[in-house]
Amino acid sequence: MEKITEIVLLGSTGSIGTQTLDVCRTHKIKVKALSANSDTELLEKQAREFNPEYVVIANENYYGDMKARLSDTSIKVLSGEKGLCGAAALPKCKTVNAIVGMAGLVPTLSAIKAGNDIALANKETLVTGGKLVTDAVKRYGVQLLPIDSEHSAIFQCLMGAGENRFSKIILTASGGPFFGKKRAELASVTKEQALNHPNWDMGAKITIDSATLMNKGLEFIEAVWLFGAKPEEIEIVVQRQSIIHSAVEFADGAVIAQMGSADMRIPIQFALTYPNRLECPAKKLSLADVKELTFNKPDEETFECLAAAKKAITRGGNAPCIVNCANEAAVRLFLNDKIRFLDIGDAVNSALADVKFIQTPTLYDLLDTKKAAEEYVYKKFGLSE
Ligand code: NAD
Ligand code: MG
């Protein structure tokens, strides 16, 4: 069996980050670098347990605190995007990107250019910079292994396909906490209700994205880039129990699905140990206990973020970056009690209509698009950043 490479873990203090460290603990995988945005307390604790060579604190304001906390160790403290990119590119490592938001894009590109394989949880990397990232992956000959459970499922379903291309990707969705609700009922939902996901325990931003179905829209775009699918080849199906993590259909009508308990440590571990399968601390699936699996069509009229994301990838260019960044800004405002739940979809759709479209954006164009989309959303609600 191949030896598991050392990893660099960006976003180690988050939901995916801490579960990745759980896998590292189980299999004694060495960690060369850890990072957080501002949570110096947890980052210190993780650093003392895993003894990496580097830690990166992304928000420069916390650099002094981080440095003081580790002053009795030989761990080097880096900061900012430069620090993240430096860590991402440490030689002969697999770079795990568990950062939330488009902040993950530049470090992902840095890892690829250094020739590191990537285990990617940060879907916003592919949503905003899909073309740049997939071109770089080809050019530098690295592997891009998905951590997102649906994409890990699709990846696994395709492992036995040989030269056969899929005829369809069936991307499953839990439906989130507001499944079955109509617009009028969503007008007054609270942050607490939106943060209460039925099947998964995740970071705040993706939990809100799951409530608006933006998460499925982002995953739709992610699947286009990861698997070279055309938008019309991807069907979204609500699978309420989150047991079937996604499926693929072939020309003969055979459908291969991947199942498992709703525990991110399974796809995280597979991205770390690929192509090997090792014991995992996640609970094993008992289909007899699950009893029934249900399937529904998503309601794109009510959940207009999903419709906007599909429109954006069909339009191409910087359109997915516009919807992603408008959503990031709107979710931030919603989490800070500045706007209401339905304002998120409204912000995403109007940004898609109004923010400047660029057909073949460079990285700089995408970073400008981020700024423009965020400013647009703040202005729309009469707020300043
Ligand atoms: P989280 O909010 O729990 O953690 C995010 C991590 O990124 C933290 O370590 C935080 O310190 C760091 N971070 C935040 N802003 C940053 C910035 N500007 N620069 C650098 N670092 C920053 O998020 P999460 O739920 O772990 O999600 C991480 C990514 O994985 C997201 O892209 C999400 O869509 C994806 N994902 C998560 C899950 C899940 O179960 N949580 C499942 C599938 C995909
Ligand atoms: Mg997912």
Descriptive key words:
seven-stranded parallel β-sheet, binds magnesium ion, 385 residues, binds nicotinamide-adenine-dinucleotide, alpha/beta, four-stranded mixed β-sheet, globular
Explain the overall architecture:
The model has no long low-confidence stretch (mean pLDDT 97). The protein has 17 helices and eleven strands. It is an alpha/beta fold and 385 residues long. Helix 10 (204-212) packs across helix 15 (319-335). Helix content is 47%, strand content 14%. It is globular. It has helices at residues 15-27, 40-50, 63-69, 80-88, 105-113, 123-140, 149-157, 183-186, 191-194, 204-212, 214-227, 265-273, 287-290, 304-315, 319-335, 341-354, 363-380; strands at residues 6-10, 31-36, 54-57, 76-79, 93-97, 118-120, 144-146, 168-173, 234-238, 244-249, 255-259. The protein has a seven-stranded parallel sheet, with helices on both faces. Strands 9-8-10-11 form a four-stranded mixed sheet, with helices on one face. Nicotinamide-adenine-dinucleotide (NAD) is lined by residues 11-17, 36-37, 39, 58, 98-101, 103, 121-124, 148, 200, 202-203, 205-206, 264.
